[in-house]
Amino acid sequence: MHAIKGDQLVQHGRVVGEHDKVAEIVEVMGDRGTPPYRVRFEDGREAVCSPGPDSEIRHRETQL
After folding, report:
1. CA angle 1, 49, 26 (to 5 degrees)
2. Do residues 38 and 47 touch, judged by C-beta distance below 8 A?
3. How many CB atoms lie within 10 A of CB 46?
4. Count of other CB atoms within 10 angstroms of residue 57
5. DSSP 62
6. What's the confidence (pLDDT) of residue 63?
7. CB burial class (10 A; 0-12, 13-18, 19+) of residue 52?
8. Which residue from 58, 63, 48 is spatially nearest to 3, judged by alpha carbons?
9. Residue 48: what pLDDT?
10. Low pLDDT (below 50) residues in the chain
């Protein structure tokens, strides 16, 4: 997994009916774009996470 500041981290819902959680990557803490990432969720909360297999990175250039 590789990301840069400004990309989005999408954590897919794990059960039927659970919505995806979308967060903006505000800091890349690993080497060369690897996790962990500091993220900001839509409600303003921030967290440090190392995404699992239920997550994906949406790169800025593909969001336009």
Report:
1. 80
2. yes
3. 12
4. 18
5. H
6. 54
7. exposed
8. 58
9. 97
10. none
